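Here is one chain, start to finish.
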Amino acid sequence: MYDIVVTEFVDQWAVDDLARDYKVHYDRNLVDKPEELAKLAATSPAIIVRNRTQIRGPVLAAMKNLKAIGRLGVGLDNIDMEECARRNIAVFPATGANTVSVAEYVIGATLVGLRDVWKANADVLAGKWPRNDLMLGEASGRRLALIGFGGIARAVASRAKALEMKISAFDPLVKADDPAWAQYGVEREADLDALLAKADVISLHVPFTPQTRNLIDAARLAKMKTTALLINTARGGIIDEAALASALTAGKLGGAVLDVYDVEPLKAGSVLDGVPRLWLTPHIAGVTAEGNIRVSTVTVANVRRELQRLGIKGSK
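Its structure:
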């Protein structure tokens, strides 16, 4: 029997810290072995996961003694929250721990994407000198559209402000009189389509829900400027990937930077394969050495505190 099962990568010191008091099973590849995961965690009161481990269906049902889930990150779409609530299972996202990491990624993607820096590499190595082709735009003075105005979007806004960008955001859950609009120097836009039409850079910061699935579809892509840069560090499924591929291939969008996908990892033959002006990273916007320390620290503390609150002592 294990007290805590960890299914994806975490700092080793965090595992060692928990192991002082609890019996811990750590296998960073356990996410790819759901049957083994279900057996190992069948009697465990706690489990620690990242975004790929699906805590739902038969896997969740097999965890008869589960009391706490530590999420090494903030998204909860891989966890059946309704079932957890029904069973009184506490879920602890590492809220705020990777905010800086994601915000810096978005700013980096903005600067590199607007200058189309990636395009130059192959040409320069081939002896070409495409200076005229890369006489592109600065971030200063451009309109940044934030879709969602939570903690990460606000961190992006504060950094974009230093670049002298114009910043607007759409988030119907943040009231018009919320002081955050003035605090971060962000214009509130009540019409998503109107915001997309005037933005130079669009960054997504909404959770994945039935309401946000394919929020950016063919119709909304068509409303964007043909020079616009689209960045998604939120969740896959928010953008219709086939529609995005078509828009980029047809030259109807300036570029896109994706860190998240509808299915992760991407499958061979994805509709995104070979698409121009598209840059892909493997869900790492929030993963930095510093961010991982913060995420690990918060998650370990959350799980330990909950087990102690419940009076669950380690089986060591």
